[in-house]
Amino acid sequence: MAASAIDQLREIESKSLSRGALVVQNAQMKAAEWRGIGFRVGGTELVTSMQHIAEVLKVVEYTRIPSSKIWFEGIANVRGQLVPVTDFYSFLYGKRLPADRETRMILFRLANSVSGLVVTSVTGIRSFREDVLDQDATGIDDEIIPFLSGCFHQGGDAYPIFDFSRLLNDERFMHVTELNE
Predict the structure, then answer these.
(1) 38 shares a domain with 24
(2) Quick check: helix, strand or coil at residue 111?
(3) Cα dihedral: 160, 161, 167, 169 (round 10)
């Protein structure tokens, strides 16, 4: 016996509602997912939230500032906006790594300003479940720890979370000239 039109509509409605429940469940799962950009500073891989990333670029030309510290690269003109550029490895360790084809500049946007951070490489977009977040940064260099806001652990690997606002609040970072010593 063929199903009535009403029964067919009820079946379609039931399937639609169950699919809607799956969509809501998937949306809830995604809400518990953290997304960021992975990057390397020397041999250390870090991740940073995409929330404050304006752009990732190859290192652009910049103008050096006389008497600036070794880690302060200078000022770059990025699409008409003047951007201070810092070599993060040099800031942390006091020496330069040679730039190569993997070297990138991450543009961070906080409030109404943009700053560029030169990193060894960008490893791509990373996603983590928020329930694998903790504060254990075992094995991370002491120089990096003040700029971390936690660490994701996944597949036996640790992914420390770099927090650009912590770098901006660091007293050393705000003094770019040798005259400030």
Answers:
(1) no
(2) coil
(3) -120
15 and 96 share a domain?
Answer: no
Residue 34 has pLDDT above 50, yes or no: yes
Helix, strand, or coil (residue 155): coil
**Domain co-membership, 23 together with 108:** no
Q: Could you give the CA distance from residue 82 to residue 167 in angstroms, rounded to a whole number?
A: 19
| Same domain assignment for residues 90 and 15 | no
**Structure tokens of 90?**
């040099």
Q: Is the entire prediction scored with pTM above 0.85?
A: no
Q: Identify whether residues 113 and 146 lie together within a single domain.
A: yes
CA distance readout (Å), 118 to 47, 73, 153, 169: 14, 9, 25, 18
Residue 83, φ and ψ in degrees, nearest 5: -125, 125
- Among 100, 106, 102, residue whose Cα is nearest residue 88: 106
CA angle 124, 128, 131 (to 5 degrees): 165
Per the structure, the complete domain to which residue 162 belongs is given by 33-180
List, for residues 102-130, the tens digit of each pLDDT value: 999 999 998 788 999 999 999 999 999 98
pLDDT digits (tens, 9 = 90+) for 144-181: 999 999 999 888 888 999 999 999 999 999 888 886 45
Q: For residue 158, what are the β-bridge partners? A: 153
Rounded Cα gap, residues 109 and 53, in angstroms = 6
Q: Model confidence over 83-108: pLDDT tens digits?
A: 999 999 999 999 998 999 999 999 99
